[in-house]
Amino acid sequence: MDKILIRGLKAATVVGILEWERQVRQELSIDLDLFVDTKSAAKSDDFELTVDYAAVSEVILAECAASGYQLIEALSEHLVAAVFENFEMVQSVRLLLKKPGAVPEAEYVGIELQRSR
Predict the structure, then answer these.
(1) Counting Cβ atoms within 10 Å, is residue 94 exposed (0-12), middle (13-18) or buried (19+)?
(2) SS3 90
(3) What are the C-alpha distances in Å from 37 to residues 1, 4, 6, 41, 42?
(4) Greatest Cα pair distance in the chain
């Protein structure tokens, strides 16, 4: 299976369990691997036969902007579900969500999910 990559997508969201985290938007960094069969698109050079990575990015950013989750685990699961709901060609998703500043001594904390239809 082929992979379409999106790296370092910056998304502002409300996520966390602490009171201050519920009152400010934090910037997350998201990496996506979208597993898709790209043979038809490559053979025909037809945009309609592949996944529009800009559209995927827009969906992820919109979902993050509307988020009120406490846990990055819940937000990540929701984001993967949104990809599957909006992009039928995607057969599997790997999502890495990074939350900088959650632990002062760490570059970031994060979660990585791998889900298939």
Answers:
(1) middle
(2) coil
(3) 6, 10, 16, 9, 10
(4) 52
Residues 34-62 have a mean pLDDT of 96
Instruction: Name the β-bridge partners of 13.
Output: 26
**Pairwise CA distance, residues 59 & 62, whole Å:** 5
Measured distance CA(37)–CA(39) in Å, rounded: 6
pLDDT at 19: 87
pTM of the complete model: 0.94
- Residue 57 has, within 13 A of its CA and on its CB side, a CA count of 13
Active site residues: 99
The arithmetic mean of pLDDT across residues 72-87, rounded, is 98
Say which amino acid occupies 100: P
Helix (H) or strand (E) holding 115: strand 109-116
Collapsing DSSP to helix, strand or coil, 84 comes out as helix
Yes or no: say if 93 and 33 are a contact pair by the CB < 8 Å rule: yes
* Sequence letter at residue 89: M
